[in-house]
């Protein structure tokens, strides 16, 4: 969420500059701000401003999103980074290690789904009793 303060940083970026330099829409910049993934402040003219390190934060957010990391997890991971500087190489290594287990779980889930789909090819029954895609983990049997 935005913080109301005056920042003397003349190198601060407008929301349009952040969007253009990050390759995302202005509305996405606002969304990240309201979701507390990035932060901004208002200048004396009541215009929203961002420090330059927000560009690296957005890059990390986009990479994590493309890997399927939920925004809540991204927010949690970014919240432990220092706010006074851009994430550096060590920060990125720590984040990527943290997200590797999430990615490995997703890969295992997708591999299982792919194997189950292979078993179903040519069947088409979609039976609640027999089909692992329709009834994963045999939930119906437990009922
Ligand atoms: S479609 Fe028949 S077992 Fe899945």
UniProtKB/TrEMBL annotation:
Q: Which GO terms describe its biological process?
A: response to oxidative stress
**UniProt keyword Iron-sulfur, yes or no:** yes
- The HTH merR-type domain extends over 12-80
What are the UniProt keywords, alphabetically? 2Fe-2S, DNA-binding, Iron, Iron-sulfur, Metal-binding, Transcription, Transcription regulation
Gene from which this protein is expressed: soxR
* Species this protein is from: Larsenimonas rhizosphaerae
NCBIfam families noted in UniProt: SoxR
Q: What is this protein called?
A: Redox-sensitive transcriptional activator SoxR
A molecular function GO annotation: 2 iron, 2 sulfur cluster binding
Leader peptide range in chain numbering: none
